[in-house]
Amino acid sequence: MKPKNIVVFASGTGSNFKALHKATLKKEVPARITALISDNPDAGALKYARENDIRGLVLSPKDFDKPAAYEDELRKILEWESPNLIVLAGYLKKIPDEIVDLYKRRIVNIHPALLPKYGGKGWYGMRVHRAVIENREKESGCTVHYVTRTYDEGPVIAQVKVPVRVDDTAESLAARVLKQEHLLYPKVVRFLLSHN
Ligand code: GAR
After folding, report:
1. 16 C-alpha to center of ligand 1: Å?
2. Is the CB of 10 under 6 A from ligand 1?
3. Pairing relation of β-strands 139-146 and 156-163?
4. Structural domains in the chain (count)
5. Which domain holds residue 78?
6. Predicted confidence (pLDDT) per residue in 135-162, tens digit
7. How far is the CA of 1 from the centre of ligand 1 (A)?
8. Where do runs of H (alpha helix) occur along the chain?
9. What is the CATH number of the domain that holds 154?
């Protein structure tokens, strides 16, 4: 069987990327992460990629004159990498519609809330956790979903719930959710690759 390839997109620390990479090394996810694409040259994810022999690329729409030139470059990179699955792990830029259409049902994202709650443009990271605390929600969690043309609206693949405690801060809640993300994402990726 041909080995499966994954391309990861990340903008920040990249702890989900690292968790997925570790799962591939342990063969819990039988695939290879061939490239990490980031819009942020200072991303921890990029540093980790370079230290672990994963091709690390910086690609940001703002470095191109026209959106079409950016899309073209991204399309070429992906064609070359030929991923079975594209995994967004804390990636804050929108994936261009053309790419979403080309890789239909082959791009997934993780979101730190129970979608459809606290999802959509502008909802990411600590903003989500702060709002959950302010609204005195009893539970939160994380969601893995397919990426479609609209932010956070693609079909949900899996969710894990966590309790919100009365003495939680956004930081303590974020840590509880992130712990679950690191367990959930590799499991979902494994499942999806076994079916594609
Ligand atoms: C994660 O909590 C992920 O769910 C969230 O960003 C964090 C990235 O952490 N993603 C979003 O908010 C997307 N809307 P990481 O860089 O340590 O993996």
Report:
1. 7
2. yes
3. antiparallel
4. 1
5. 4-194
6. 999 999 999 999 999 999 999 999 999 9
7. 32
8. 15-25, 44-51, 67-81, 97-102, 125-134, 170-194
9. 3.40.50.170
